[in-house]
Each structure stands twice: as structure tokens, then as C-alpha cells.
Amino acid sequence: MTDGQPALAPRAKPAQRPGRALLLAVAWSLLGLGAQAAPVISSISPESGSVSNGVTVTGTGFGASKGTSTVTFGGTEASGYSSWSDTRIEVLPPTSLGFGASAVVVTVGGEASNGVEYRRLPWLRAACSDRRLREPSGSVTIGVSREGTGSGALLVSVTYGGTATNDWDYVAPETLTIEAGKTAAQGTLFISDDSGREGNETIIVQVSAEGFLSHSCEMTLEDNDPDGKPAPVITRLSPAAAGVGGLFTITGSNFGATKGSSRVTMNKRWVPTRSWSDTSITVAVPGWVTTGDVLVRVGGQASNGVAFTVVPHPVISRLDPTQGPVGTSESAPQKTRAGLNDTIRGTER
Known about the structure:
Elements: H1 20-30, E1 40-45, E2 48-49, E3 55-60, E4 70-73, E5 76-77, E6 80-84, E7 88-92, E8 100-108, E9 111-112, E10 116-120, E11 124-128, E12 132-134, E13 138-146, E14 154-161, E15 170-171, E16 175-178, E17 184-191, E18 201-208, E19 215-222, E20 233-238, E21 241-243, E22 247-253, E23 263-266, E24 269-271, E25 273-276, E26 280-284, E27 292-298, E28 301-302, E29 306-311, E30 315-316, E31 334-335, E32 341-342
Parallel strand pairs: 2-10, 12-19, 21-29
Antiparallel strand pairs: 1-3, 3-7, 4-5, 4-8, 6-7, 8-9, 8-10, 11-13, 13-17, 14-16, 14-18, 15-17, 18-19, 20-22, 22-26, 23-24, 23-27, 25-26, 27-28, 27-29, 30-31, 31-32
């Protein structure tokens, strides 16, 4: 109080108006336009591959469209994008990506995702010099090449698929070696024409090695039966077992009146013939064959196979006794063709 007058209460300051920045923040929050959450990668598929293999990135927060967002491999942006959605992206790795592991990262609105490892692998590529092969015989070059020269030799496994059968319709190498400092190696696949009557067949050649991406090539083995003649058929072998030098008869049909270029094989090996007619063939057992199926091939067509047993010659294992006067009986246990023991008795001459 002054001069008898009551004291006045201090005047309250007027409330300040909210600033522009605060108003905008509230508006963005109400409209759901707040700060962008960082994207999250849950998986990538495949986890390894070459720069020519597409990669699918799965996760959340990628955004409905790409816009200015990016996918990087080891810090280098992908070379191409085939699709983009909020949960899935399909990309191609950068062509300059080096071998080994690198982190895949999705960046949206300046926010980077977690990193997921992708492993860049070098490729192995199979090569077939001819994609269409013609029975009954011939060969084709198969090859393998690798990405980069490499520092050492590489042993490559070669496997075969398709409807044709390895070691039956064809014979081919199971491994190829790329020498140190080289990028390629070659081998030869030989057509053996054991089942030409089955129509066109396929041969799939696949190459693989540890730490490399495998690749395959496919060939067609064409049936050589232009006249539509029926395939030869074997009904029986008589006898079905014989030793080297022995004769047996193949009975059946569609063998042809004369031999010509037709042939007989036993366990995939050629055997000589003594006589030939349309229904009967006489064969001598050579020393280079073993027990296996007998087939007749006529005009590029193969018959059914019938089993034949090559009987080994008898072998004397010992004589007991090994000496004695004239007239002494001697026994020689012998491994016979049936695998049993007989006794050979010595007689006086």
C-alpha cells in the first residue's frame, strides 16, 4: 500500500501462441505423417549367387513404391529393380560386386535397414558343342568354363541326367580338370546307341564344384529309325552259359536276312558271329567279354537284353600226392565251372 491505496496484483502475462514448427508437428502426427520408421529386412533369397541371378528382399517398411529409395550390396547400389512393394523387393546385384560376402541394405527416406549377408559366387558353365545328336554312333565335345582365371587347378564334377542312360546310350567323363590359370576344360561324350528303339532321348550335362554356381546344358539324342522297321527281339539263348571259345545261338525275330552292319554285343562289348539269319544268330564267346546282357543291334535299333554267363575254365589248385609209382591214384581237388570240387584220378598209360 502506498499513500493509503491498496496494492494491485501483478498482471499475468498473456499465453504465447504455439510456434509454427510445433503446429506442423502436431498436424503431421494427427495425419499419420510422423517420422519414417527404419525399414527392416527379414530375409533374402537366394543367400548366394552370381551377379546375373536375381535377389528377392523380404521385410517391412520399404514403401509402396521405390521413389528415391535404394538397395545396396556392400555399399554399391543394385544394378536393376524388377519390382518394389512395402514388403518385397526384387533386384539384381551390381555387376561390379566382388566375390565373397557383402551386406544387403535397404534405405528409405534416409533411414537404413539392418544388413543381411549375401555371398557372391563365381559360376561354372557347361557347354555342349552340338545340341542334336544322331544315332547310331558319334561323339560330341562337352566343356566347362569358370568365371575368372582362378589361382589354382579346379576339379569339376560332371553328372548326367535326362531320359538317355549313361554307360548304355553313351559314355562320358565324370570329371574335368581346369588347369591353374586357365578358364576352361573339355571332354568327349561318345554315343553307343544301346536303346535307339526308344525314340528321341535327352542328355543333360551338369557341372559343379564346391564354392561355384553350377550350370547345365541339354542335348537331344535322335532316334535313327527312318523306315519304321520293328526292333529286333531276342526270345532265348541256347545255351545261356558257355566258356571262352564256346558257341551259343540267339533265337528271335527281326534280325535281318544278312548281317550287314548289324552287330551283337555282350555286356556292352562287340562279339563275333558265325552265322546270321532273320530268326537265328550263332555267336562264339571271345576272351574279352564277361558275364552280362546280350543284345542284337539292327539299323540303329537295339533288342531287349538277355543274360548270358561266361563260364571260367577249370583250374587245378593242387595234386595229392604230388609223386608216386606208376598206378598210384592221385586226387586233384579242382575248382569246376559250378564252383564245386571234383577229383581227377590219375591212370596208368
